[in-house]
Amino acid sequence: MKHILIIEDDKAIAELERDYLEISGFDTEIAKDGEVGLKLVESNEYDLILLDLMLPNIDGFELCREIRKKRDIPILMVTAKKESIDKIRGLGLGADDYIVKPFDPAELVARVNAHLSRYDRLTSIERSTSQREIVVDKLRILPDAWRVYLGDEEIKLTNKEFELLLFLASNPNIVFTKERLFDRIWGMDAMGDVATVIVHINRLREKIEIDSSNPNYIETVWGAGYRFKA
């Protein structure tokens, strides 16, 4: 049974999420503020986290950043904030999806199922598939070990960042549109848009490029998309 942590200070919303998830066969736990949520993440294993943004003690943005340092599992932000800048900021901190309140509980469950299925496919299939390491200049990608090195330094990537980099590096010098990358990495059943791709490309560049404004590995082909330069 999948174990889901709900970090939400609104009791009614937290219980609504819990009830629908438990009816759908999930085991759930509720944290009423960011500080308690972080302690639970540090001491327990979860398969997915539903994270509110407007939390007491530690807000959702800071909490997402801290969770990403410790866990590489799907994080779905659930918030009343509708502005695009908040969505982009949340995705930039490592969230996998962004759900705006008020939401349809059935849609919430559908998104949870979609992200868990996606994560399971990545961990159980792609990690077990034997692939040679990919080396380009100082960048080294080890698909079997799920690791990336820049010189002698290991670069920590989220699951989505790693899959995006691996896909691009496995298909060097081919231009992929943002739409194609979104479909390939997040899946046709994902609830999101191509802004997710832009955010993750920017985060990858910040981690693997010496100068992210003048990238050596992931190039932008204006009006077309992105390609991995090999």
The tally of beta strands, per DSSP, is: 11
Which parts are unreliable, with pLDDT below 50 for 5 consecutive residues or more? none
- The order of strands across the largest sheet is 2-1-3-4-5
| Biggest pleated-sheet summary | 5 strands, parallel
Radius of gyration: 18 Å
Cα separation of the termini: 43 Å
Annotation field: number of helices: 8
Helix content percent band: 40-55%
Give your account of this protein's structure:
The chain is elongated. It has helices at residues 11-23, 34-43, 60-70, 84-92, 105-126, 159-170, 178-186, 195-208, and strands at residues 3-7, 27-31, 48-52, 75-79, 97-100, 134-136, 139-142, 147-150, 153-155, 218-221, 225-228. A five-stranded parallel β-sheet has the order 2-1-3-4-5, sandwiched between helices. Strand 8 and strand 9 (153-155) form a beta hairpin. It contains eight helices and eleven strands. It is α/β, with parallel strands linked by helices. 43% of the residues lie in helices and 20% in strands.
Q: How is this structure best summarized?
A:
The chain is α/β, with parallel strands linked by helices. It has helices spanning 11-23, 34-43, 60-70, 84-92, 105-126, 159-170, 178-186, 195-208, and strands at residues 3-7, 27-31, 48-52, 75-79, 97-100, 134-136, 139-142, 147-150, 153-155, 218-221, 225-228. It contains 8 helices and 11 strands.
Structural key phrases:
elongated, alpha/beta, 230 residues, five-stranded parallel sheet, four-stranded antiparallel sheet, 20% strand
Write the layout of secondary structure elements.
Layout: E1 3-7, H1 11-23, E2 27-31, H2 34-43, E3 48-52, H3 60-70, E4 75-79, H4 84-92, E5 97-100, H5 105-126, E6 134-136, E7 139-142, E8 147-150, E9 153-155, H6 159-170, H7 178-186, H8 195-208, E10 218-221, E11 225-228
Parallel strand pairs: 1-2, 1-3, 3-4, 4-5
Antiparallel strand pairs: 6-7, 7-8, 8-9, 10-11
